[in-house]
Specification:
single chain, alpha+beta, Nuclear Transport Factor 2, Chain: A, 2 helices, 4 strands, globular
């Protein structure tokens, strides 16, 4: 009985870890993506200086300088244009 409970808890842990990893990527059909031009303009409207835009793991990936002049690599949901993950670079 305890063995089954332990196995269930391990499986829940694995499932939760997979869900957290999936959250780092974006799962949006291409037909629902906003255009790169719209994305670039949204960043510029926030005061960002955009160097390049790519796609990775289903997200838009921007290499830019943010409104404070800090160099960043940032990932955004291509449908909502909300940030998914931001990495600062020194």
């Amino acid at each position: 009985m305890k063995r089954g409970l332990v196995l269930s808890m391990v499986m829940l842990g694995v499932a939760a870890a997979g869900a957290a990893q999936a959250a780092d990527g974006c799962d949006v059909p291409k037909s629902e993506w906003q255009s790169r031009d719209t994305f670039r303009q949204a960043l510029m409207d926030k005061g960002w200086e955009v160097k390049s835009i790519r796609t990775e793991d289903g997200c838009y990936e921007a290499y830019a300088y943010d409104e404070n002049g800090d160099r960043v690599e940032a990932y955004f949901n291509p449908k909502t244009l909300e940030p998914v993950r931001v990495k600062g670079e020194d």
